[in-house]
Amino acid sequence: MQGPKVYGPTGKVEPFLDHNITRHYLETIPDQQGKIIAEYVWIGGTGQDVRSKSRTLSKVPEKPEDLPHWNYDGSSTGQAPGTDSEVYIIPRAIFRDPFRMGDNILVMCDTYEPPRVGPDGSLQPPKPLPTNSRYSCAAVMEKAKDEEPWFGIEQEYTLLNALTKWPLGWPENGYPAPQGPYYCSAGAGCAIGRDLADVHYKMCLYAGVNISGVNAEVMPAQWEYQVGPCLGMDGGDHMWMSRYILYRLAESYNVEVTFDPKPIPGDWNGAGGHVNYSNNATRAEGTGWDAIQAQIAKLEKRHAYHIAQYGEGNERRLTGKHETSSMHDFSWGVANRGCSVRVGRMVPVDKCGYYEDRRPASNLDPYVVCKLLVETTLLM
Fold first, then answer.
1. 3-state helix/strand/coil string of the chain
2. 272-285 exposure pattern, b = at least 16 Cβ within 10 A, e = fewer
3. Are 337 and 358 in contact (CB under 8 A)?
4. Residue 77: left if φ>0, alpha if ψ -120 to 50, beta else—which one?
5. Which of 92-122 are b and which e, b meaning 16 or more Cβ less than 10 Å from the residue's Cβ?
6. pLDDT by residue (tens digit) across 281-306?
7. Residue/partner pairs of 287-292 with CB below 8 Å, 24 or more apart
8. What percent of the chain has pLDDT over 90?
9. pLDDT band at residue 17, thresholds of 50, 70 and 90?
10. Which of 319, 354, 367, 337 is nearest to 47 (CA)?
11. pLDDT of residue 238
12. Cis bond upstream, residue 229 (ω within 30)
């Protein structure tokens, strides 16, 4: 059976600046006089924007605790008033810098009110900002550390023309051929933006992000990569850093990345952030399958609570169509991608393993979702 005819995209997206000039200076000035550059990365006031700034260090740190704390103007990120604008950032995870390379690093941080002097003259510890979802996630992971929760997050995203805000490679005043030829595809007009997806893959590997795969998705100009399996806090740290690298890379191509869960209305797939999850109980041979069913029952009881925190605009995606379940109902099944929670085909056979929460949107906060999964299944 022959599928719909697919036509190659027309036009070309030009970078704003000349990469040849950038490459020339990066390659001809390798000596940094024994210093390194640390790019501090944090989450901004919307909970979706990723911010960063650089500083020079005199030596390579061995662990995040070796790095100095820093601050920034929170009034410019929606996280503080102008009259008291200083926001404190604390380094939490270190990655290699795939843009500057060498000994230079990327540093994942979280955000706090700065330390203040108390009434007795003592210095009070910094307080996490309301937008600091990492803080509460870390507290939950610490309580459940003996259960060794593992996460594998599937990050879907859509590439847009930065000038038109229309999916990359789509006809300027129309739509491409219907869905069908694009998922895991190869060929002109089918796999749109592969260069960016492939370079991002290699950059994440270089950086030390635990990225495990990439594929073209069901809608043209939509891609997915997977981060994991990650233990505990690494799930959120690695996912946020992978997003930062993706934004930076797309910037150089003059292409926009959107994590909107339903970027194009109509008969087009949305974008999800499915989370594959396991712990010692579900991985235990012989008894893991029973533990999985018991944990899914717990998730059902808190379905509405989870849905409310699984991504903004998720109601446009979770309609019961396009490989989703309805956000109003909880369901689970073996190998069923139309359910809230999918169990792999071999899990009931092996009597142990993992399950996939398919409800989170592509714009999920991985700290929030990972925290909820552990809290609901292991601590309640």
1. CCCCCCCCCCCCCCCCCCHHHHHHHHHHCCCCCCCEEEEEEEECCCCCCEEEEEEEECCCCCCHHHCCCEEEEHHHCCCCCHHHCEEEEEEEEEEECCCCCCCCEEEEEEEEECCCECCCCCECCCEECCCCHHHHHHHHHHHCHHHCCEEEEEEEEEEEECCCCCECCCCCCCCCCCCCCCCCCCCCCCCCCHHHHHHHHHHHHHHCCCEEEEEECCCCCEEEEEEEEEECCHHHHHHHHHHHHHHHHHHHHCEEEECCCCCCCCCCCCCECCEEEECHHHHCCCCHHHHHHHHHHHHHHCHHHHHCCCCCCHHHCCECCCCCCECCCCCEEECCCCCCEEECCCHHHHCCCCEEECCCECCCCHHHHHHHHHHHHHCC
2. bbbbbbbbebbbee
3. yes
4. alpha
5. bbbbbbbbbeebbbbbbbbbbbbeeeeeeee
6. 999 999 999 999 999 999 999 999 99
7. 287/351, 287/352, 288/347, 288/350, 288/351, 288/352, 288/353, 289/347, 289/348, 289/350, 289/351, 289/352, 289/353, 292/343, 292/347, 292/352, 292/353, 292/354, 292/355
8. 88
9. confident
10. 367
11. 98
12. yes
Q: What pLDDT is attached to residue 117? A: 87
What is the mean predicted confidence (pLDDT) over 146-160? 98
End-to-end C-alpha distance for the chain, whole angstroms: 51
Residue owning tokens 């999918």: 342
Closest CA to 236 of 110, 361, 343: 110
Q: Which two tokens stand for residue 165?
A: 């805000």
